[in-house]
Amino acid sequence: MVNEFKEFISKGNVMDLAVGVIIGGAFGGIVKSLTDDVIMPIVGAIFGGFDFTEYFLPLASGVTASTLEGAREQGAVLAYGAFITQVLNFLILAWIIFLMVKGVNSLRRKQEEAPAAPPAPPADVALLTEIRDLLKK
């Protein structure tokens, strides 16, 4: 069983997946910062200075707070603003991944379109060709 586990772990696909998950986690942090620190303030400035993350609907009768954090402490709330922010994070991440895949696909197409060099003849054919050329002289 240990040998099978070593074989499973050492396969390229598993290692590629592990690297992808690690890079994806770091990339997710970048996208979150892009959304929270760059895009949402611009959207807020365009639409009158509001921040989506603080938008909520109280679900309990005792919720009177004006901030999401305070409202969560008082009872159940529907934090639709945080959901909107997460949807924007997802759309930005999906768009960036789409652009990356599109770029890789275009590179692959260019490699496929490039004419392949003719394969070198086997050594015996090359030797016979050399002899023929010498005899012609």
Topology:
Elements: H1 2-10, H2 12-46, E1 57-58, H3 68-74, E2 77-78, H4 80-113, H5 123-136
Antiparallel strand pairs: 1-2
Helix pairs in contact: 2-4
Characterise this structure.
- This protein is mainly alpha-helical and 137 residues long.
- It is built from five helices and two strands, in the order H-H-E-H-E-H-H.
- It has helices at residues 2-10, 12-46, 68-74, 80-113, 123-136; strands spanning 57-58, 77-78.
- The protein has a two-stranded antiparallel sheet.
- Average of pLDDT: 82
Low-confidence stretches: none
Name the overall outline: elongated
List the quaternary state of the chains: single chain
Query: What strand line-up does the widest sheet have?
Result: 1-2
Number of helices: 5
Rounded to the nearest angstrom, the distance between the terminal CA atoms is 69 Å
Q: What order do the helices and strands follow? A: HHEHEHH
Backbone CA Rg: 30 Å
- Name the helicity range: over 70%
Q: What percentage of amino acids are in beta strands?
A: under 5%
Largest sheet: 2 strands, antiparallel
Structural class: mainly alpha
Number of strands: 2
Fill in the keyword field for this structure.
137 residues; mainly alpha; two-stranded antiparallel sheet; 5 helices; 2 strands; elongated
Structure described in brief:
By secondary structure, the chain is mainly α. It is built from 5 helices and 2 strands, in the order ααβαβαα.
